[in-house]
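This section describes the prediction task in plain terms. A model, or a person checking by hand, is given the sequence of a single protein chain and must write out its three-dimensional structure as a string of tokens. No templates, partner chains or ligands are provided. The sample shown here is typical of the held-out split.
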Amino acid sequence: MLSTLKDVHREHIFCFLDLPEIYALSALNRFCHTIYEDTPKLRYHSALLKAGMLDGADGRDVVNKLAYLEWKETSWAHFGLERTVHVVVRHRPSAVYELTAGFYLLGDASHTSDMPVFMRQTRALRCFDLTQLWPQDCYIATHRDPWPALTFKGTVAQDEHLVDFGVAIQEFDLIAVVTMTNVEIVSLRLRLMEFSTGRSHPLAASQVLYSIYTAATMGKPSVMVQISGRYLIYLVRWPRTVMEMRIADEVNLFDWWTGAHLVVRNPPFYSRKIH
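The expected answer:
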């Protein structure tokens, strides 16, 4: 029966099976095993089930997604806590940072005075490529030059400072940067750019995904950005004193490819819960 179907039809049918059923079918005979081994879509489907993950990277072909997923699962299987890396920071750091895809990103607040880290304004992001230190189990980087700075070409003004960012480097070469001005009018903007070039991201329909303007008396909000596939979550939380003026916190869900604002949720005033 299976031998009379076209390859695309067999793939479609097999992808409805659970993981134990796929393994059992592939072990049934040589013909079924060959179907499994020669079908990247089926192997990718099985790898997703085994890893407990969903496919969120629509923009990549199955072969590359399968190779990346297998590499990631193998890396986690051989993860060793004994491997440590010590790097020297040659700039004045801020409280903005991220560790992802082998890169350590840390805010640069070198223009500020000697104040507590959480109060420093971030004017630039600097990047350290941790993969260059591999495969040493313990490495101390003693280079004297500052880490390379990420540049955002023609997009971020001089009076803006960075308050948070989210990344999807391996999937889309994407960095979503939240900047703010804090003068008479507070301007809060979320921009979508290529990590490697600093230019507007070519997959995004709009470079500026979100912006809001309010009086400086509203205070400085806390923000958070998370990216999964083509979806981006953006949280804005205002200081408690602003609640008296009825400025609500927000949780926003975007399709960053199209710019569609899919969901917005506002928690009740004076509440710490978002429904």
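For orientation: The longest strand covers residues 185-194.
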